[in-house]
Amino acid sequence: MIKTTINILIVFFSLSITTTNVHAGNGMILVYEAPLFKEPNIKSKVVQKIPKGKIIYIHHKHFSDVVVEENAVIAKNSYRPDQFDRTGNSLRDFYITYDNNANQSYILKDHVKLIYQDIKELEDPAPSFNLSNDPTDFRMKEPIPQHYPLYNSKNIRNFLTVGTKTQSYKPYQYDQTLELNSKEYGIPLELTYSYLQAANFDKERLYYFGGILIYSKYSNQYFFENNSIVEERYRRLGIGPYLSYDFYQIEDSHLFTVFMSPIIYLINEVDITITIPNGGETQTFNNRLLSLRTGIIYQRLKILNSVDLILGAILEITPSNTLEATANNNNQFKKDNERNFSSFIGFQLQI
User: Fold this and answer.
1) Fold assignment, 23-133
2) Over its length of 351 residues, how does the chain's per-residue pLDDT go in tens digits?
3) What residue spans define the domains of the chain?
């Protein structure tokens, strides 16, 4: 009875060992961080990363010399050869394993060494790459070069834009006895150039400081009952400091920025030309003016190498001011507080 029981136990353990060898195997990770793919395709989703030296489960079929079994697995999982030819990969480039959630996944054969525990250890081919140049190891070798850029080396932005804006429709105080028949408002045109440099204290390159140059012009016409025509031509040239902050980015293609800029208009002129049946005259009014600009900019990055497409919206607040006639005849042109909205399009070069 005891002899029979011992024989049964021996047979049981033999079958257990055999079953284990048939249905499971192990492999050791050879690379710094081996990715597990959801599908046998290097462009599929990476579900997990395994560190170097770790022992992982490998499906038993990869320890078998029967090629038919591999083809059966392909058929069972509906993997067609042409499904992988487009990327240069097939199931034969991968081992089947499982991730931490017990889902079947795939690991590149070059990233793992099978543990046969027999003479096959010597026959297992080496990886197709040099392990000293591990394709998964992105760590920098020390010592790091003294001037190595650890952050974005492009810290200068130049952009040129063209845009339009709302305008003040309050005209000069003309003769109130004349009746205004009609009026025509021109479309304001505005050109800007900005030069910005990343702040030295900000290693993430979110804050930019610099300056802006603005030129704008537009004209309005008024038609009175006595066939008089009045044309107002506005010109502004301004400069000022510029501060921007990159507050949101989508991948590497879309960037949103807010900015603020106080503007000093060195030239703020209005030429008023009055044309009457018997002649006419022109007077020029000017002053210097301070305003504040704030707004938001959308950048479509790298539409052509280092060139970006930019779109923006601006709110400009200008206090009330008085323009004086250059002819010293005590004529004045009074302007109320203004809140102008503008939009623009342009291109940005980052260097």
Assistant:
1) SH3 type barrels. (2.30.30)
2) 555 555 544 444 444 444 444 446 899 999 999 999 999 988 899 999 999 999 999 988 887 654 433 444 443 333 343 344 334 456 778 999 999 999 999 999 889 988 888 877 777 666 666 667 788 888 877 777 666 655 556 789 999 999 999 887 777 777 666 788 888 999 999 999 999 999 988 888 899 999 999 999 999 999 988 888 999 999 999 999 999 999 998 877 899 999 999 999 999 999 999 888 888 889 999 999 999 999 999 999 989 888 999 999 999 999 999 999 988 778 888 888 999 999 999 999 988
3) 23-133, 156-350
Q: Is the full-model pTM beyond 0.85?
A: no
Query: Residue 240: which of 218, 215, 258 has the closest Cα?
Result: 215
Contact 220, 185 (CB under 8 A): yes
Whether residue 157 contacts residue 128, with contact meaning beta carbons closer than 8 Å, is answered with no
Q: Decide: residue 58, CB within 10 A, 0-12 exposed, 13-18 middle, 19+ buried.
A: buried
Q: Catalogue the E-assigned strands of 3-99.
A: 24-29, 33-37, 46-51, 55-59, 94-98
Residues 336, 325: Cα–Cα separation, whole Å: 17
Q: Which amino acid is at 118?
A: D
**Tokens at residue 248, please?**
């949101």
Q: Provide the 3-class DSSP secondary structure of residue 206.
A: coil
Written out in words, the top-level CATH class of the domain with range 156-350 is mainly beta
